[in-house]
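Thread amino acids onto this structure.
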């Protein structure tokens, strides 16, 4: 007798979900708590494990289909029964186990790059699952994390000439705190999931473009051989390509990725290509391709449809509904204030060197979050919710952080943020943003928020008019911090300046209250020592 696995209720009152991908196929052998599919709800992506052990008889709900809670998903012949004839396993995901593991004892530790990027890099580590997660497996544990794409240094491959990069950007693309072996394995896994196509071609094209850029440098004659005299000057041509130096594990990883090591800029001793060099080059090849607008435009009169149709579903559908509800039900009032954040920048710099914050990422967003909590204690009515019969003033802060993810806008929140120390708040912020970026945010992480911060400054934007998260009364937009002329004691000097924007529910928050709240937030950014009053 076959057992049917039905779509469970993953919480938060959700009634339906879309089937994103199946990890198994007909004929696959499954065990209890083995992840068999990924679903997308209106709030998150969730992995569902099998409640049965046995052999997959049939897939009932196809990928891309939206099904209601309780609908049948998969039929499994329980272990001990004779399995029905079925097709071979069609799961491509199981190919991930073929990723190459590089022995650590064969690799020498890499030295830190001499030049670091000025922009802070995300260095939060994902905590390992708790044992309790096994007993709650049916709720799902989130999707597997894909390697995070970060802006990498852009260099002319094979010649060491930097292209389109400021000196401050010429740092390692590998995230701090992550070993190159781990990143190589992630790249290999991604390449295998994509069928091993594209990366080698992108890397080869990137190398050719780099060498082509050398030939276009001023005073360069591409057709002249090395050392040939052109007029009254000697023209240097491209140096001959030599066999790349690299250790066996690096060579094997490059072969699996389809990358010619001769194209990879080497930073190791005696021109040796290191694991980090290979990771940077592969990540850059993927980044260049993902941002290239090739074949986007469609010519008039062609056979291809000139309008792309994107179904409205999942997070986008839920976000649209929430934003329309907030914008048309809550009368918004927005105010802005310019802030001299120079002392905040000095404070952040000191925290980064403090032993207390060793291993913890510290950014100005941490000080803003603490400032919002401090200002809320002085103006508690901004931390409230409107109902038709009463105003609910929350005597706790579940601080939401708006996060732009590949799946859309999410606002996970830090529960009881008012009880956290500065270090604990920094750890919570890092964990929250890392979890959102990896697609592991669960519905419970976004529930019961009381106030939100949107860090638009991370995108280089000065300010904006944010829309309040439904069920809240205030949201603060944190603009970019950059040096601007500022008058101090009658003199114009350069200072670190930012702009804060705030939107408030005018049914609850009057103009004077919103102004006092924003002034208090600005005061902390101007003088972080005020936090000692907390």
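Threaded sequence (534 positions):
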């Amino acid at each position: 007798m076959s057992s049917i696995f039905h779509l469970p209720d993953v919480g938060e009152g959700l009634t339906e979900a879309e089937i994103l991908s199946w990890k198994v196929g007909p004929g696959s052998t499954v065990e209890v708590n083995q992840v068999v599919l990924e679903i997308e709800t209106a709030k998150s992506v969730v992995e569902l494990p099998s409640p049965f052990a046995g052999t997959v008889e049939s897939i009932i709900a196809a990928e891309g289909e939206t099904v209601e809670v309780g609908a049948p998903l998969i039929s499994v012949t329980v272990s001990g029964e004779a399995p029905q004839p079925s097709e071979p396993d069609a799961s491509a995901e199981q190919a991930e186990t073929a990723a190459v593991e590089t022995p650590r004892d064969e690799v020498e530790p890499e030295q830190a790059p001499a030049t670091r990027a000025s922009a802070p890099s995300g260095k939060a580590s994902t905590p390992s699952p708790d044992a309790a997660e096994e007993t709650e497996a049916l709720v799902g544990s989130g999707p597997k994390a894909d390697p995070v794409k970060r802006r990498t240094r852009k260099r002319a491959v094979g010649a060491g000439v930097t292209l389109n990069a400021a000196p401050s950007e010429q740092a390692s693309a590998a995230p701090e705190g992550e070993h190159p072996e781990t990143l190589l394995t992630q790249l290999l896994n991604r390449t295998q999931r994509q069928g091993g196509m594209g990366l080698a071609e992108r890397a080869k094209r990137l190398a050719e473009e780099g060498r082509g850029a050398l030939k276009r440098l001023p005073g360069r004659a591409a057709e002249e051989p090395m050392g040939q005299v052109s007029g009254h000057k000697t023209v240097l041509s491209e140096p001959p390509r030599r066999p790349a130096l690299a250790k066996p594990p690096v060579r094997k990883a490059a072969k699996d990725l389809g990358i010619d090591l001769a194209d990879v800029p080497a930073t190791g001793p005696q021109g040796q290509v290191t694991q980090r060099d290979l990771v940077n080059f592969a990540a850059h090849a993927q980044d260049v391709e993902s941002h290239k607008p090739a074949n986007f435009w469609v010519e008039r009169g062609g056979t291809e449809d000139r309008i792309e149709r994107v179904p409205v579903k999942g997070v986008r559908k839920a976000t649209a509904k929430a934003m329309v509800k907030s914008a048309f039900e809550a009368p918004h009032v927005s105010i802005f204030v310019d802030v001299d954040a120079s002392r905040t920048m000095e404070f952040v710099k000191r925290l980064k060197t403090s032993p207390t914050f060793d291993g913890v990422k510290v950014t100005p967003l941490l000080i803003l979050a603490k400032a919002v909590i401090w200002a809320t204690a002085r103006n508690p009515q901004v931390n409230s919710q409107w109902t038709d019969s009463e105003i609910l003033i929350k005597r706790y802060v579940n601080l939401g952080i708006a996060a732009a993810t590949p799946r859309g806008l999410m606002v996970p929140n830090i529960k009881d943020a008012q009880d956290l120390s500065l270090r604990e708040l920094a750890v919570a912020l890092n964990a929250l943003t890392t979890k959102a970026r990896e697609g592991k945010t669960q519905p419970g992480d976004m529930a019961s928020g009381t106030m939100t911060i949107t860090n638009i400054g991370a995108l280089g934007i000065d300010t904006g008019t944010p829309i309040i998260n439904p069920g809240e009364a205030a949201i603060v937009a944190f603009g970019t911090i950059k040096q601007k002329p500022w008058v101090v004691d009658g003199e114009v000097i350069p200072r670190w300046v930012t702009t804060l924007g705030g939107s408030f529910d005018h049914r609850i928050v009057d103009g004077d209250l919103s102004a006092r709240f924003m002034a208090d937030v600005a005061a902390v950014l101007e003088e972080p020592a005020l936090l000692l009053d907390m």
